[in-house]
Records
---
Amino acid sequence: MSDAQSPGTATAPDALELAALLCSRVCHDLISPVGAIVNGLEVLDDNPKPEDREFALDLIRKSAKTASARLQFCRLAFGAAGSSGAQIDLGDAQTMARGHIEDGKCTITWNLPRLLMPKNRVKLLLNMLVVSQHTIPRGGTLTIDPIGEGETMSFRITATGHNARLPQNISELLSGERGPAADAHAIQPYYTRLLAQACGLTVTLRLEGEAIIITAS
């Protein structure tokens, strides 16, 4: 029997590769604001004019705030987030999601109740938000609605914005259908599928009119 894979079949990374790819993803999110902080400090080291000094300090303040928000979000979305069986407050998840995603172009409409939920479901929600954000590259609104209630509640996110689109191969990675091998660019939706499976759910992404709908059910 041949072990050759069919063309286009997704290749699952092993545990070490998955960890490495997720680390690469986190570093990608942090490198821009951290680099801006370094640039601001270099300006200050050059004994700048007062107006340049104020510009540098403002750049450092904004970039440090962005880096902190992204770190907190990544810690919850990709990290251990407490012990096995831990629960997470959806109110905390909302705060971290807004800090990471709302940037002047993208806004969040959060229609979920505040309650404690199993950590993997909260991690799934945050990763679904990242997938949804990629469908509106020019900005727009992400509307989060509950499906069901209580600890078994799942989620529907509606992304609306100019030029909303289905990113290439993302649907396949979410569903487990044929798609590319998970790499540093694709690892986040692949990880979203793993989280959904751990929760006994399936994630789907579809175009509905001018909106992109991502659902976990």
---
Amino acid sequence: MNLRVKHWVYGVFCLLVAIIVIGPKLHAASNAHPKKAVVESQVKEKPTQEKNVNSSESHMRTPIDWHKSSETIPYPDLSKVKDFWIKVDLKNNRTYLYDGSKIIYTMYSTGGIYKKDPKTGKMKSVTPTGTFYAQQERGDSFFNQSLKEGANYYVSWKNHGEYLFHSVPTKADGKYNEREAAKLGKTQGSHGCIRLSVPDAQWMEKNLPVGTKIEIVG
């Protein structure tokens, strides 16, 4: 074997050794960066997850208690609210207090039961939907003799006493109908009015300004 061939064989041998010894190290090094990127990505996502905890309903009282306010924080000070209005979501059993586009308080509520509309064949709430305005009629209690049902802390929003915000219903003896009260925030059940917890209804009666816009959807 001449010298040139020996050099060629030796060169090939060295190249094979380099591939066998150094190759795995290079592969391991190349995989290190993606792992680091994954870890950094997870770290960056944590603030977003924490932010989601502070949602509009993060202060809602659970389980629902019709004896108490819907949120565990104080009611809003309307003297500091620039653009106050209310949205009632019949299907989701929530009443939202807004300042412009921002929800400032959420109340558990119960609207009218759903019945089939003879004209369309679709299920429709007996609570009217649309835009209404808070009216001056309000008081501490009432009893509807024809319905054998009453409530406390009411304020009218349509037909001057026909459709109201009021507490969960009371019976003829003035005691709360606990079976109906248990529906609050969970399902529909009224004859058309919007039922609220006792403290929420009391706050509405005392604080809801006449003329406040009320949008009812669902």
---
Amino acid sequence: MRDLPQMLKVYAHARELMARNGNPTQWGNTFPRESVVRDDIANQRTMLLVDMKDGHERILAQFALCPGEDPTYARIDGAWLDDDTYVTIHRIASSGLVRHAARDCITWALKHYGNVRADTHPNNKAMQHVLETSGFARCGLIQLLDRPTDTTRIAYQRHEW
């Protein structure tokens, strides 16, 4: 919980970057809400990529790692690679301090869990590039369950066999 203020700054930075790069609606001005970030921390879903500089820890990137079946992924216009157990990466954001931080988070998740799913907004070309160059397959389209508008997302999966 001590990292919460910095995590909120990282998400604010990510929202600004997405808006500047043609994706102003995926997270708008408020997502992820502080209550969601607190819930991720409380339920031990928060993953931080950190380093040390001048004796101080810095958050380079963060994401929620969600084990178990994701209800949003139950219906897909397309097909998942398999029905095996998986983890989902949600709410990934880079602080902008180093290059490839999001990719490093994804690499870590694949190394530790093997079967990983994720989704992103059709306008989020940067995340699509990161997922596709990390070996993820574009599986189809899903609809978010927790938002009233702008809910279509591109679904991805990578399974280390």
---
Amino acid sequence: MDTHLDTPVYYIEGRTDRAGNKIGSLLTELYAKSDSNFEELVFLCIGSDRITGDSLGPLIGHRLAKEHLNRCCIYGTLANPVHALNLQETVESVKKEHPNSLTVAIDASLGSKKHQGFVTVGQGSLEPGLGVKKKLPPVGDISITGIVNLSGAFEHFLLQTTRLSTVMELADAIVSGILVAHRQYFGTRRPSLLAFFHPEEERRRSLTKLTPLSAESAAARPKGS
């Protein structure tokens, strides 16, 4: 799957009270716009639990796994993270074990100062490691990222010094949104709300401003672990 540069990517401020509802409404709409014949949702939560800035995906996977959501499968938790070293193997397993699924890829990212602490939601895959020239498979039919810190120089240092409170706020918003979408999509459908959201142009101009971090964090993993 390729990253779709012409597909709108929606930005939601993670710390607002209604962030979960906004994320949930967007996800519900994107589920409906996808193949209506999918049998289950697969949440592919990418990242490492060893570095604060890259722990967003595993933290979300850990929390979703405790919900035991109907028709949902979770890959990537704190106990069993999905990162650069096992991503290809995991993607192949998902294709084999869940051939009629819709995959939602979740990862941490870096972005501009004005978007730090924001959640992005979009239709199409994300490419882990894109900004660090790592060749990893694009993943997901729908992508969610949490912008944990600023893009630029010294990204290893930024990952290691990212505030846990920022990661937790983003995780809270994303998990809440996923739960809202699960109730809406598998329960009573609601009218489309996409018209009330305005996609940012920044992502479409340059993916370097929103870079998934899994490959970066793998390189920074302590030796001998």
